[in-house]
Each structure stands twice: as C-alpha cells, then as structure tokens.
Target: Purple acid phosphatase
Amino acid sequence: MMKIRRRAVDPAVMISCCYFLLVVIIIGGADFCNGGVTSRFVRRLQESPDMPLDSDVFRVPPGYNAPQQVHITQGDHEGKAMIVSWVTMEEPGSSTVTFWTQTGKKKSANGRATSYHYYTYRSGYIHHCTLRRLEHSTKYYYEVGTGGNTTRQFWFKTPPEVGPDVPFTFGLIADLGQTHDSNDTLTHYENNPMGGQTVLFAGDLSYADRYPNHDNVRWDTWGRFVERSTAYQPWIWVTGNHEIDYAPEIGETEPFKPFTHRYHVPHKASNSTSPHWYSVKIASAYVIVLSSYSAYGKYTPQTQWLQKELSNVDRSETPWLIVLMHSPWYNSYDHHYMEGETMRVMYEPLLVQYRVDLVFAGHVHAYERSERVSNIAYRIVSGGCRPVEDDNAPVYITIGDGGNSEGLVTDMTEPQPEYSAYREASFGHATLSIKNRTHAFYNWHRNQDGYNVVADSVWFHNRIWLLND
Ligand SMILES: [Fe+2]
Model:
C-alpha cells in the first residue's frame, strides 16, 4: 500500500485521524486510516434556487442610465493598472473614469463601450476602461459615468509592489451563481477577518446558461449581485464551463460570448493571445490562469504559452507560484470524476517540473484538498498509474463550493484515496494569506458557521524556499 508522508498537516487533521484509528482498534477493525479526512459535516443538502429577480441584491442603482455591475480586475502584469468595467442600460453614456487619491489631483481615463446580442437578448452598453500608472499600495477613489447622466463613486486599493516577502491575502471562490447560498458565501468572504485583498475566482460565474435560451438577464443580475465586492477589490477571472454559452440550437455558436464581452482581463500583458489563459503578478505571488475549455494539446497556443510562461517565472521575485483552472485534476467526488484527466496528462509534468505551489480549481460543488502528489510516471506500455508522494508537486484544492443553483455534490469515491487530505460537501470559501517567501496560511470556511470558524486550515511551505522543511 502506498504510504503518503504528510507534510504541514493541520493538528486538527492529525487529531481526527488518530481518533479514527483509536475507534478502529476499539471495535476490532482491521483496516488503517488509508486516506485523509472525509468530513461528514453536511448541514444542508437541498438545492437552493436562484434569488428572485426582485431581490434587493439585484437592485438597479437609481438614476437615469446609472452605471451598474461595476467590477475591477488587475490591468497589467505588475499591479500598477486596473481595468474598471460597468454597464449602462439606457444609452451608451460616457466610458470615462475619473480617479484620484486622497491627496492627489483628479485624473481621468477613457475607455470603450461594447455590446452584444445573444439570441433575443441585447446587452446594455458594457464599458471597459484601464487606469494606468497607478501607485502601489494606494487607495484610489473612482467615479464611473463621468460626463454622463448619473455618476457613482467607488474605491479600491492597489496591490503592493511585487517582491519576494510581500505579504498578501487572497480570497478563493468558485462556482458562485446567484442563490441564497451564493449570497452567504459572498457575505462570509466580505466579513472574513483574514481580510482578502483580491479574489482568485476559479470559474462559473452567473449560471445564466441554466435558463431557457441562456437568459442573459441573469448575467446582469449576477453583475449587480457581486458588485458590492467586485467594485472594491480585483477579482481574477477564470473561465468555467458555464461561461462557454455555446448553443447552436438557437444560433449561438461563438463560445464565451457573454463572458468575453463583460469581463476583460490583462492577457496581453503576459503575451497571451487569449483572455482565457494569462498571468498576473500580485505581491509575492505569480498567478497563472489556465482554460479547461480551450485547446491544451501539444502545439496549441495555450500549451506553447504555458511552457514559455513557466520558464519565465522568477521565484526570487515571486516565490509563490499559483495556478488557477476550472476543472480539477485530483477529484475524489463522483461528480465530474476524471473530467480534468486529459489536461492533467498534458500539463502535470510541467507543473511538477516548475514546482508550482498550489493549484486551485472549481467545477465540483464541494471542497477538497490533496496531499502533494504527482502521477507523471505513467506510460501506456508500462501500465503503472497511481498518484505518488512528490515534494515537487503542488497541493490541489477544489473550491467549487460557492453555492450555485445546481446544489452540492455529496457522493464520494470510497474509500477516500490516499492523495485526498480533506474533503467535505459544504458550501464555503477560502483565504490564502501569504506571510513571506516561505510560509502561507490557508483557511477554508464553511458557510454554516460563524465568520471566525475554520473547517480546514494548513500552513503551506514554499516549494522553492522551504521545500525540505
Ligand atoms: Fe463548472
């Protein structure tokens, strides 16, 4: 039986495992605790429908042609630019953003508006404006709708200058949707005392495609729902399967049409030719976004880009190498089982070679954290095919538990595979708090508890700077 040596194990996990062993011995059982922890903590299983259209979280801001669905994301590779996006419904209005610091003069930047049709739906005017030459670690106030009919003001804080020991806290959310559970997840993230500064969002935003003809009104409601966070801190976007919106039966054959019109990302800054794969540097982290639903075979643009990208990462500048994707490679739930396998076969050797620290994915509507394992020795002629302990491998975390209308998945493969360290079918979110080049503290919070309750937490040691600790 393969023995996986555990590293950086949470004391709570060790206590739980020891307790389980004790119980097994007491009842005369003959097996060992051969996997990690499967939490049976499931307080609520029923699916939750989307919040009604007249919910207060979807309220249209007052005023003629008022900007709505405001969201920001990092606008360059280094964190000195911010893309501000919003929608006006009645008329194009102005694409100008005015921005200022508490002590500085007002500046303005001009953006552009776009729109699209989807079957019988016609979008509002979607504005994207990049604010450049910003100072690091600075609070900026900004106003959208400038020169138009109704203006609205927001603020954000730019990330600190990139450096190896710069602390930074990320929020981790995926598969959010727009149910009451989604609302709980977002509220818990907002109230999390860890204080997330940027959200790494691992795909599946609105779930509008679950409605007849992919009713894109639900893209608009989602944009208004999350504005209370997305207008104030950057969300780093990943495309999931619910962003594909491919519906040839109604003549919609352009994949990702609503997403790519509504959510701009700085892919050109990392020499990517597609908004579906790109990278950003944030504080001491290098974040690589991959697309589970774009071509990733050999010779494809995404593969060529990833190979070059990984070789360019300077871990003395950004020690923490984080990869985001939608479909997980290591998933011991029944749902979406092995959907990420073909991408794993293609990309896992690269991620191990370059000692990626952490891989976050969504898609499976539950939570799971892996041990550090790899499965790259497999050759079809030799047949060996099992994940093995690998200090150079990332930890894989599935965080597809945002709370959408498809509900939780609860069926798991049994027994728990040895590579699976912790799994639980509850909604929630996580935070990753990087302390310096060697240590990062990670927490997963389930929704049903108070804001301070942590269900799974672990210290991560950097794969370059503390590999053998
Ligand atoms: Fe998904």
